[in-house]
Amino acid sequence: MIFRRHGNAAEAERVLRYVLGREPANAHAMANLVTVLEDAGRTSEAAALARKLASIEPDPPFHFFNLGMQAIRGGDFARARDLFSREIDRDAYNHEFHFWLAMSYYGLGDAKRASSHLTIALENSNTRGEHELYAAKLERLRALPAR
After folding, report:
1. Which residues 6+ apart lie within 8 Å of 8 measured at CB?
2. pLDDT tens for residues 61-101?
3. What is the 3-state secondary structure of the chain?
4. Residues contacting residue 78 through CB under 8 Å, at least 6 positions apart
5. At what angle do helices 43-56 and 27-39 cross, to 10 degrees?
């Protein structure tokens, strides 16, 4: 959520609570509010809302992505690949999912698939900065000797 990313947690919470007031089962808004509450240290409130979210949607948005990031940090590129692939099955146009899937493939030594998903990330990037970043990474990847 934009407000949260820019450090406006109170604004983010207000907007998300407004959305949930109108759409009480909106899983996306609920998942974002859980994150905002966790960031604010309101863990019991976040946990209660997370339980409600789990009853609505067993695998909330970014569930497999977050697990994939844990796997990447742990160096388990095969598990990360599988988790990012599951998230892409749910949201095929999210550039971040494709970027991290590319990094998983790179970690596994599969530069061809890494390049393919980095290209998809580039094509689905939302800003000029993201586009330039992915283009530079793709160029660097293609310049590396085959592993």
Report:
1. none
2. 788 999 999 999 999 999 999 999 999 888 888 999 999 99
3. CHHHHCCCHHHHHHHHHHHHHHCCCCHHHHHHHHHHHHHCCCHHHHHHHHHHHHHHCCCCCCHHHHHHHHHHHCCCHHHHHHHHHHHHHHCCCCHHHHHHHHHHHHHCCCHHHHHHHHHHHHHHCCCHHHHHHHHHHHHHHHHCCCC
4. 104, 108
5. 160
Look-up of token digits 């996306």: 28
Which residue is listed with tokens 């000029």? Answer: 128
CB burial of 132-144 (b: ≥16 within 10 Å; e: otherwise) equals eebeebbeeeeee
Question: Which two three-digit tokens encode residue 69?
Answer: 């990031």
Compute the mean pLDDT over every residue in the chain, rounded to the nearest whole number. 90
Residue type, position 28, single letter: H
Q: Name the token pair of 86.
A: 């599951």
First CA to last CA across the chain, in angstroms?
38
Query: With contact defined as beta carbons under 8 Å apart, do 56 and 27 qualify?
Result: yes
Contact by Cβ (8 Å): 141, 106: yes
Nearest to 10 by CA among 48, 43, 41, 37: 37
pTM: 0.66
